[in-house]
Write a structure and sequence with these properties.
binds calcium ion, binds 1-O-alpha-D-glucopyranosyl-D-fructose, alpha/beta, TIM Barrel, Oligo-1,6-glucosidase, domain 2, eight-stranded parallel β-sheet
């Protein structure tokens, strides 16, 4: 029998602090804003908040470029505000996890500044290398497309797998390990309940040799889930994490189920769970810029594979890097509500810890961006620049970026139907989606059959169901684009039915009491478009 932990049946809600709630009218969400919404979050029924970075940062990548691991960015408030948030959340039975970004720092971090100034001790915190035959030190490719080597004077470069303002840390250096241990302790001592570990499976580079040439991310075989990375994770747990009541979820790029399984295998003692990407890549070829039409069955197959092959999953359909799930896997038009409920229900019925991204619980959609001028995201801009240099036409570049830009998820949270969605009284840092006139929390609060009410009810149901929280998972046969699975515990069995398509589907009827559904409680042999049902089967 597996030991049961609070972070397994806890429901996590991700906050992108810049876009959540602005308390002082400067157009940027902040910590007092989050505090003012704790009662809302409590009423939704979540128990863990994951905060995307709130540390000091020049914001080249909105906080994923950290210049001080133990501080709070003044845009977000003060350390007193942070302490108050932790305490106020705790008073409501809500824990907080922080984003831990340790593959790289900002180039404005004091370590990097000292390195640039020539201090040998700090140079060894990063990867500085001489050029090779008048060229950059190796042929690696960047996660944001473009260069991974930035020149700094005399035929010398530093490595950055992301933006050039995000130099990679050298994890071969034991001092880097010690520094990061101190960072973990600092936050855990404050009462933080764990970390979401940014691109954690690529932190340890085996070598800086040239990589095998490929479409994207040339060089990846030298740093993807290396033994050195496993070793660091085991030590972090032994030396620090095991001394606290906390958990870690790894953001693990490019992993298959085997790698993911190793990274969160309980015997090895590394991470507690990881975010896979395979289901998020079901509508692309190779890289996310090359989209293919979405086919529900492909998403179903990938979700099913991870359910079967991973001990304990971290289930999500949205985050701050991905377009909105209704726009992508559902319908933003006339069937927005049923499809938002179906996707939300599915995410909360799969086996594993469930993650909800801000705004998902009211069915927020992508933003109708018109041009690159509407977009802040550094990734979109770097990709545009690289594609331009390759000679790609502006209209083609734009069509790729328009669909995939991470800013779709980053527009401000829609609290009310006011022009600025109740997010701010000032000028929002990123435009509020005009559909806040009808997609907003205040309107949803008035409705018993809205998306928000559905989420509340679904969360309550999950909490009251042993099968949904802990039960085994088994997929049942079903027509194409329909996902049917059972969750079974000692005392209870439920069957979850999701029509992931916009067409009616005929199924073998499933007898039993309907516990929740997005079309009422009619239990027939036909699933309406995007219909979702949970049926108690024994
Ligand atoms: O993202 C890692 C990552 O590789 C992708 O999700 C990335 O956002 C992109 O879509 C690749 O095409 C993490 C963070 O979630 C992201 O916000 C940061 O920009 C990135 O790491 C660097 O810290
Ligand atoms: Ca503010």
């Amino acid at each position: 029998m597996m030991q049961k932990h609070w972070w397994q049946n806890g429901i996590v809600y991700q906050i992108y602090p810049r876009s959540f709630c602005d308390s002082n009218g400067d157009g940027i969400g902040d910590i007092p804003g989050i505090i003012s919404k704790l009662d809302y979050l409590k009423s939704l029924g979540v128990d863990i908040l994951w905060l995307s970075p709130v540390y000091p940062s020049p914001n080249c990548d909105n906080g994923y470029d950290i210049s001080d691991y133990c501080g709070i960015h003044p845009d977000f408030g003060t350390m007193e505000d942070m302490d108050r948030l932790i305490a106020e959340a705790k008073a409501r039975g809500i824990r907080i996890i922080m984003d831990l970004v340790i593959n790289h720092t900002s180039d404005e971090h004091p370590w990097f500044k000292k390195a640039l100034a020539g201090d040998p001790e700090y140079r060894d915190y990063y990867y500085f290398r001489k050029g090779k035959d008048g060229k950059v030190p190796n042929n690696w490719g960047s996660f944001f497309a473009g260069d991974v080597w930035e020149p700094v004077g005399d035929d010398e470069y530093y490595l950055h797998l992301f933006a050039k303002k995000q130099p990679d840390l050298n994890w071969h250096n034991p001092k880097v390990y010690d520094e990061i241990c101190d960072v973990l302790r600092f936050w855990l001592d404050k009462g933080i309940a764990g970390f979401r570990c940014d691109v954690i499976n690529i932190i340890y580079k085996n070598t800086l040799a040239d990589g095998k040439k490929q479409l994207a991310l040339t060089g990846i075989e030298h740093y993807l889930s290396t033994e050195g990375c496993h070793d660091i994770l085991q030590r972090l747990r032994k030396d620090v994490l095991s001394k606290y009541d906390c958990f870690t979820v790894g953001e693990t790029v490019m992993v298959d189920t085997k790698m993911a399984g190793d990274l969160c295998n309980r015997e090895r003692g590394e991470l507690d769970m990881v975010f896979g990407f395979e289901h998020m890549e079901c509508d692309q070829i190779g890289v996310k810029w090359f989209k293919v039409p979405y086919r529900p069955q492909k998403l179903i197959d990938r979700l099913d594979k991870w359910q079967r092959e991973i001990q304990w999953a971290a289930n999500y359909l949205e985050n701050h890097d991905q377009p909105r799930s209704v726009s992508r896997f559902g319908d933003e038009g006339g069937m927005r509500e049923v499809s938002a409920k179906m996707l939300g229900g599915l995410n909360l019925c799969l086996r594993g810890t469930a993650y909800i991204y801000e705004g998902q619980e009211i069915g927020m959609t992508n933003y109708p961006f018109r041009s690159l001028d509407d977009i802040e995201d550094v990734e979109s801009h770097t990709v545009n620049e690289t594609a331009r240099k390759m000679g790609m036409w502006p209209s083609l570049r734009w069509s790729l970026i328009r669909k995939t830009s991470r800013d779709h998820a980053r527009t401000p949270m829609q609290w009310t139907g006011d022009e600025l969605g109740g997010f701010t009284t000032g000028k929002p840092w990123l435009a509020v989606n005009p559909n806040c006139s009808f997609i907003n929390v205040a309107a949803e609060e008035e409705r018993a059959d809205g998306v928000l009410s559905f989420y509340r009810e679904m969360i309550r149901l999950r909490r009251s169901s042993n099968a949904l929280q802990w039960g085994d998972y088994r997929k049942l046969s079903s027509p194409k684009d329909v996902y049917i699975f059972e969750r079974e515990a000692e005392d209870e069995k439920v069957t979850v039915l999701c029509n992931m398509s916009r067409k009616e589907k005929r199924i073998d009827p499933v007898d039993g009491e309907i516990l929740i559904g997005n079309y009422g409680d009619e239990n027939g042999a036909v699933l309406k478009p995007y219909e979702f049902r949970v049926v108690k089967t024994s």
